[in-house]
Amino acid sequence: MKTDLSCESNRLVRISKDYRRIAGAAIFAACSLFGGMAQAEQTLLCVLVPHFKDEYWVSVAYGLERRSDELGLSVRFFEAGGYDALQSQLAQLDTCKSLGPGAILIGAVSSDAPALLTAIEAASEDLPVIGLVNELHSDALVTRIGVDWSVMGRTLGRHLVERFPDEGATVAAVLLSGPPSAGWVGPLQRGLEEGLAGSSVTIVATYGADTGIAEQLRLVEQARKDHPEAGLLIGPAPAIEAAMAFGSLGNGGPALAATYVSHSVARGLVGGQVLAAPFDDPILQGRLAIDAAHAVLGAAVVDKEIRTEITVLQEGLGPNDIGLSPADYFPRLD
Fold it and tell me: What is the pTM of this model?
Protein backbone atom coordinates (compact mmCIF):
# COMPACT_ATOMS: atom_id res chain seq x y z
CA MET A 1 0.00 0.00 0.00
CA LYS A 2 1.46 3.35 -0.95
CA THR A 3 0.55 6.92 -0.30
CA ASP A 4 1.42 10.25 -1.83
CA LEU A 5 2.40 12.27 1.23
CA SER A 6 2.19 15.74 -0.27
CA CYS A 7 -0.09 18.22 1.52
CA GLU A 8 -2.42 18.22 -1.49
CA SER A 9 -3.22 14.53 -1.80
CA ASN A 10 -2.51 11.01 -0.65
CA ARG A 11 -2.73 8.18 -3.18
CA LEU A 12 -3.84 4.78 -1.90
CA VAL A 13 -3.39 1.62 -3.94
CA ARG A 14 -5.06 -1.70 -3.26
CA ILE A 15 -3.87 -3.81 -0.35
CA SER A 16 -1.52 -6.51 -1.62
CA LYS A 17 -1.05 -10.18 -0.90
CA ASP A 18 0.06 -9.34 2.68
CA TYR A 19 -3.52 -8.35 3.49
CA ARG A 20 -4.97 -11.53 2.04
CA ARG A 21 -2.44 -13.62 3.95
CA ILE A 22 -3.13 -11.94 7.30
CA ALA A 23 -6.88 -11.96 6.87
CA GLY A 24 -6.87 -15.58 5.79
CA ALA A 25 -4.84 -16.63 8.80
CA ALA A 26 -6.93 -14.62 11.22
CA ILE A 27 -10.43 -15.70 10.33
CA PHE A 28 -11.67 -19.26 10.04
CA ALA A 29 -15.07 -20.90 9.90
CA ALA A 30 -16.32 -22.82 12.91
CA CYS A 31 -19.54 -22.92 14.90
CA SER A 32 -22.34 -20.39 15.04
CA LEU A 33 -22.11 -17.42 17.40
CA PHE A 34 -24.87 -15.28 18.87
CA GLY A 35 -27.59 -17.44 17.31
CA GLY A 36 -30.09 -15.12 15.67
CA MET A 37 -27.62 -12.25 15.48
CA ALA A 38 -25.83 -13.87 12.53
CA GLN A 39 -28.39 -12.82 9.94
CA ALA A 40 -27.78 -11.37 6.50
CA GLU A 41 -29.92 -8.28 7.10
CA GLN A 42 -27.76 -7.16 10.02
CA THR A 43 -25.42 -5.03 7.97
CA LEU A 44 -24.96 -2.06 10.33
CA LEU A 45 -21.74 -1.91 12.36
CA CYS A 46 -21.39 0.60 15.17
CA VAL A 47 -17.87 1.99 15.63
CA LEU A 48 -16.73 3.82 18.78
CA VAL A 49 -13.40 5.67 18.75
CA PRO A 50 -11.65 7.91 21.30
CA HIS A 51 -11.37 10.81 18.82
CA PHE A 52 -10.34 11.87 15.33
CA LYS A 53 -7.98 14.58 16.59
CA ASP A 54 -5.15 12.18 15.74
CA GLU A 55 -4.66 11.33 12.04
CA TYR A 56 -3.90 7.74 12.99
CA TRP A 57 -7.57 7.13 13.77
CA VAL A 58 -8.58 8.71 10.47
CA SER A 59 -6.58 6.03 8.65
CA VAL A 60 -8.23 3.31 10.76
CA ALA A 61 -11.63 4.75 9.81
CA TYR A 62 -10.66 4.76 6.14
CA GLY A 63 -9.91 1.05 6.29
CA LEU A 64 -13.20 0.43 8.07
CA GLU A 65 -15.25 2.36 5.51
CA ARG A 66 -13.51 0.97 2.44
CA ARG A 67 -13.81 -2.65 3.54
CA SER A 68 -17.42 -2.26 4.72
CA ASP A 69 -18.36 -0.77 1.35
CA GLU A 70 -16.74 -3.72 -0.41
CA LEU A 71 -18.70 -6.21 1.71
CA GLY A 72 -22.05 -4.42 1.53
CA LEU A 73 -21.97 -3.36 5.17
CA SER A 74 -22.38 0.10 6.67
CA VAL A 75 -20.56 1.74 9.56
CA ARG A 76 -21.73 4.44 11.91
CA PHE A 77 -19.03 6.32 13.81
CA PHE A 78 -19.20 7.74 17.33
CA GLU A 79 -16.31 9.94 18.49
CA ALA A 80 -15.98 10.25 22.27
CA GLY A 81 -13.89 13.42 22.12
CA GLY A 82 -10.70 12.24 23.84
CA TYR A 83 -9.19 9.73 26.21
CA ASP A 84 -10.69 11.58 29.17
CA ALA A 85 -14.21 11.23 27.75
CA LEU A 86 -15.22 8.01 29.50
CA GLN A 87 -18.76 9.16 30.25
CA SER A 88 -19.24 10.17 26.63
CA GLN A 89 -18.12 6.76 25.40
CA LEU A 90 -20.42 5.02 27.86
CA ALA A 91 -23.38 7.07 26.60
CA GLN A 92 -22.40 6.35 23.00
CA LEU A 93 -22.24 2.65 23.76
CA ASP A 94 -25.85 2.82 24.97
CA THR A 95 -26.82 4.67 21.79
CA CYS A 96 -25.11 2.03 19.69
CA LYS A 97 -27.02 -0.76 21.39
CA SER A 98 -30.30 1.02 20.72
CA LEU A 99 -29.55 1.04 16.97
CA GLY A 100 -29.63 -2.76 16.86
CA PRO A 101 -26.36 -3.17 14.92
CA GLY A 102 -24.89 -6.47 13.88
CA ALA A 103 -21.79 -5.76 15.98
CA ILE A 104 -20.03 -3.06 17.97
CA LEU A 105 -16.39 -2.19 17.27
CA ILE A 106 -14.79 -0.19 20.08
CA GLY A 107 -11.56 1.74 20.28
CA ALA A 108 -11.71 2.10 24.05
CA VAL A 109 -10.77 5.29 25.89
CA SER A 110 -9.59 3.14 28.80
CA SER A 111 -8.28 -0.39 29.04
CA ASP A 112 -9.72 -1.19 32.45
CA ALA A 113 -12.21 1.43 33.66
CA PRO A 114 -14.73 -0.65 35.69
CA ALA A 115 -17.77 1.16 34.29
CA LEU A 116 -16.63 0.55 30.71
CA LEU A 117 -15.84 -3.11 31.32
CA THR A 118 -19.27 -3.60 32.89
CA ALA A 119 -20.99 -1.87 29.97
CA ILE A 120 -19.11 -3.96 27.42
CA GLU A 121 -19.99 -7.17 29.23
CA ALA A 122 -23.66 -6.18 29.24
CA ALA A 123 -23.59 -5.27 25.54
CA SER A 124 -21.90 -8.57 24.67
CA GLU A 125 -24.88 -10.52 25.98
CA ASP A 126 -26.91 -9.36 22.98
CA LEU A 127 -24.39 -8.78 20.20
CA PRO A 128 -20.71 -9.28 19.42
CA VAL A 129 -18.27 -6.64 20.66
CA ILE A 130 -14.90 -6.31 18.92
CA GLY A 131 -11.90 -4.44 20.35
CA LEU A 132 -10.33 -1.99 17.92
CA VAL A 133 -6.64 -0.94 18.13
CA ASN A 134 -6.49 -0.06 21.85
CA GLU A 135 -5.92 -2.50 24.68
CA LEU A 136 -9.13 -3.49 26.43
CA HIS A 137 -8.98 -5.98 29.28
CA SER A 138 -12.36 -7.59 28.79
CA ASP A 139 -13.08 -11.29 28.36
CA ALA A 140 -16.39 -10.32 26.76
CA LEU A 141 -14.74 -9.31 23.48
CA VAL A 142 -15.17 -11.67 20.55
CA THR A 143 -11.75 -10.53 19.33
CA ARG A 144 -9.40 -7.57 19.37
CA ILE A 145 -7.77 -6.21 16.25
CA GLY A 146 -4.53 -4.43 17.02
CA VAL A 147 -0.87 -4.85 17.77
CA ASP A 148 0.76 -5.46 21.14
CA TRP A 149 1.82 -1.93 22.06
CA SER A 150 4.73 -3.20 24.14
CA VAL A 151 6.08 -4.67 20.90
CA MET A 152 5.57 -1.31 19.20
CA GLY A 153 7.72 0.35 21.86
CA ARG A 154 10.32 -2.42 21.90
CA THR A 155 10.64 -2.35 18.11
CA LEU A 156 11.30 1.39 18.13
CA GLY A 157 13.73 1.08 21.05
CA ARG A 158 15.77 -1.60 19.33
CA HIS A 159 16.02 0.51 16.22
CA LEU A 160 17.22 3.48 18.27
CA VAL A 161 19.97 1.27 19.77
CA GLU A 162 21.45 1.17 16.28
CA ARG A 163 21.29 4.96 16.00
CA PHE A 164 22.58 5.62 19.52
CA PRO A 165 24.88 2.70 20.50
CA ASP A 166 26.06 2.28 24.07
CA GLU A 167 29.62 3.34 23.30
CA GLY A 168 28.43 6.78 22.20
CA ALA A 169 27.93 9.86 24.36
CA THR A 170 24.92 9.71 26.67
CA VAL A 171 21.77 11.05 25.02
CA ALA A 172 19.07 12.48 27.27
CA ALA A 173 15.61 11.67 25.92
CA VAL A 174 12.15 12.95 26.82
CA LEU A 175 9.18 10.65 26.28
CA LEU A 176 5.81 12.19 25.50
CA SER A 177 2.78 9.93 25.54
CA GLY A 178 -0.96 9.68 26.08
CA PRO A 179 -2.84 9.70 29.39
CA PRO A 180 -2.02 6.78 31.73
CA SER A 181 -5.62 5.48 31.49
CA ALA A 182 -5.22 4.77 27.77
CA GLY A 183 -4.45 1.09 27.34
CA TRP A 184 -1.53 1.54 24.97
CA VAL A 185 0.47 4.01 27.09
CA GLY A 186 1.90 1.75 29.79
CA PRO A 187 2.78 -1.19 27.50
CA LEU A 188 4.42 1.12 24.95
CA GLN A 189 6.63 2.76 27.58
CA ARG A 190 7.67 -0.57 29.07
CA GLY A 191 8.49 -1.97 25.66
CA LEU A 192 10.43 1.13 24.69
CA GLU A 193 12.54 1.02 27.84
CA GLU A 194 13.28 -2.66 27.24
CA GLY A 195 14.22 -1.98 23.64
CA LEU A 196 16.55 0.88 24.58
CA ALA A 197 18.67 -1.41 26.76
CA GLY A 198 22.19 -1.35 25.38
CA SER A 199 21.87 2.13 23.92
CA SER A 200 23.31 5.47 25.04
CA VAL A 201 19.77 6.83 25.44
CA THR A 202 18.45 7.65 28.90
CA ILE A 203 14.83 8.73 29.34
CA VAL A 204 15.06 11.62 31.77
CA ALA A 205 11.37 12.57 31.89
CA THR A 206 7.96 11.36 30.77
CA TYR A 207 4.90 13.52 30.08
CA GLY A 208 1.35 12.41 29.23
CA ALA A 209 -1.80 14.05 27.87
CA ASP A 210 -4.61 13.40 25.44
CA THR A 211 -3.32 12.85 21.91
CA GLY A 212 -4.77 15.94 20.27
CA ILE A 213 -2.38 18.41 18.66
CA ALA A 214 -3.18 21.20 21.15
CA GLU A 215 -2.59 19.00 24.20
CA GLN A 216 0.61 17.51 22.80
CA LEU A 217 1.91 20.93 21.76
CA ARG A 218 1.70 21.99 25.40
CA LEU A 219 3.70 18.90 26.38
CA VAL A 220 6.38 19.71 23.80
CA GLU A 221 6.66 23.25 25.11
CA GLN A 222 6.89 22.02 28.71
CA ALA A 223 9.46 19.36 27.84
CA ARG A 224 11.68 21.85 25.99
CA LYS A 225 11.47 24.26 28.90
CA ASP A 226 12.20 21.61 31.55
CA HIS A 227 14.89 19.72 29.62
CA PRO A 228 16.72 21.96 27.16
CA GLU A 229 19.59 19.47 27.26
CA ALA A 230 17.51 16.69 25.71
CA GLY A 231 18.97 15.38 22.49
CA LEU A 232 16.04 13.12 21.62
CA LEU A 233 12.29 13.55 21.86
CA ILE A 234 10.11 10.45 21.50
CA GLY A 235 6.37 10.82 21.26
CA PRO A 236 3.02 10.15 19.60
CA ALA A 237 2.24 11.56 16.19
CA PRO A 238 0.66 14.86 17.34
CA ALA A 239 3.66 15.59 19.58
CA ILE A 240 6.08 14.97 16.75
CA GLU A 241 4.03 17.18 14.47
CA ALA A 242 4.25 19.97 17.05
CA ALA A 243 7.98 19.41 17.57
CA MET A 244 8.62 19.61 13.82
CA ALA A 245 6.91 23.00 13.79
CA PHE A 246 9.40 24.21 16.41
CA GLY A 247 12.27 23.09 14.23
CA SER A 248 10.84 24.74 11.14
CA LEU A 249 10.94 28.08 12.97
CA GLY A 250 14.71 27.82 13.18
CA ASN A 251 14.78 27.15 16.91
CA GLY A 252 16.71 23.94 16.57
CA GLY A 253 15.76 21.18 18.97
CA PRO A 254 16.26 17.49 19.67
CA ALA A 255 16.16 14.62 17.22
CA LEU A 256 12.65 13.21 16.84
CA ALA A 257 11.28 9.65 16.91
CA ALA A 258 7.56 8.84 16.75
CA THR A 259 5.84 5.97 18.54
CA TYR A 260 3.48 5.42 15.57
CA VAL A 261 2.85 6.82 12.10
CA SER A 262 0.40 9.48 10.94
CA HIS A 263 0.36 11.67 7.86
CA SER A 264 2.42 14.34 9.62
CA VAL A 265 4.97 11.81 10.85
CA ALA A 266 5.14 10.32 7.38
CA ARG A 267 5.95 13.71 5.90
CA GLY A 268 8.61 14.12 8.58
CA LEU A 269 10.14 10.77 7.65
CA VAL A 270 10.19 11.71 3.98
CA GLY A 271 11.68 15.12 4.73
CA GLY A 272 14.27 13.82 7.19
CA GLN A 273 12.91 15.62 10.28
CA VAL A 274 11.90 12.32 11.94
CA LEU A 275 14.45 9.57 12.56
CA ALA A 276 12.11 6.60 12.77
CA ALA A 277 8.66 5.32 13.71
CA PRO A 278 7.10 1.85 14.05
CA PHE A 279 4.34 1.25 11.50
CA ASP A 280 1.41 -1.04 12.35
CA ASP A 281 -0.73 -0.33 9.25
CA PRO A 282 -3.84 1.42 10.63
CA ILE A 283 -5.78 1.01 7.36
CA LEU A 284 -5.22 -2.73 7.44
CA GLN A 285 -6.37 -2.87 11.06
CA GLY A 286 -9.62 -1.20 10.02
CA ARG A 287 -10.11 -3.65 7.17
CA LEU A 288 -9.38 -6.65 9.37
CA ALA A 289 -11.89 -5.42 11.95
CA ILE A 290 -14.60 -5.37 9.29
CA ASP A 291 -13.57 -8.83 8.12
CA ALA A 292 -13.85 -10.10 11.69
CA ALA A 293 -17.31 -8.58 12.11
CA HIS A 294 -18.41 -10.00 8.76
CA ALA A 295 -17.14 -13.44 9.75
CA VAL A 296 -19.01 -13.38 13.07
CA LEU A 297 -22.22 -12.26 11.38
CA GLY A 298 -21.77 -15.15 8.97
CA ALA A 299 -21.73 -17.66 11.85
CA ALA A 300 -17.96 -18.00 12.16
CA VAL A 301 -15.47 -17.86 14.98
CA VAL A 302 -12.49 -15.53 14.80
CA ASP A 303 -9.12 -15.65 16.50
CA LYS A 304 -9.06 -13.95 19.89
CA GLU A 305 -6.23 -11.65 18.78
CA ILE A 306 -5.80 -10.41 15.20
CA ARG A 307 -2.60 -8.48 14.65
CA THR A 308 -0.76 -6.74 11.87
CA GLU A 309 2.98 -6.86 11.43
CA ILE A 310 5.13 -4.07 12.83
CA THR A 311 7.90 -2.56 10.74
CA VAL A 312 10.19 0.39 11.40
CA LEU A 313 10.08 3.27 8.94
CA GLN A 314 13.19 5.42 8.75
CA GLU A 315 14.01 8.93 7.59
CA GLY A 316 14.49 9.38 3.88
CA LEU A 317 11.55 7.28 2.70
CA GLY A 318 10.06 8.03 -0.68
CA PRO A 319 6.71 9.90 -0.68
CA ASN A 320 4.89 6.82 -2.02
CA ASP A 321 6.24 4.32 0.50
CA ILE A 322 3.70 4.66 3.32
CA GLY A 323 0.07 3.55 3.20
CA LEU A 324 -2.26 6.02 4.92
CA SER A 325 -5.67 7.50 4.15
CA PRO A 326 -5.99 10.16 1.42
CA ALA A 327 -5.39 13.73 2.57
CA ASP A 328 -8.94 14.81 1.76
CA TYR A 329 -10.60 11.91 3.58
CA PHE A 330 -12.53 12.26 6.83
CA PRO A 331 -14.95 9.71 8.30
CA ARG A 332 -18.66 10.12 7.71
CA LEU A 333 -20.08 11.33 11.01
CA ASP A 334 -23.72 11.82 12.04
Answer: 0.86
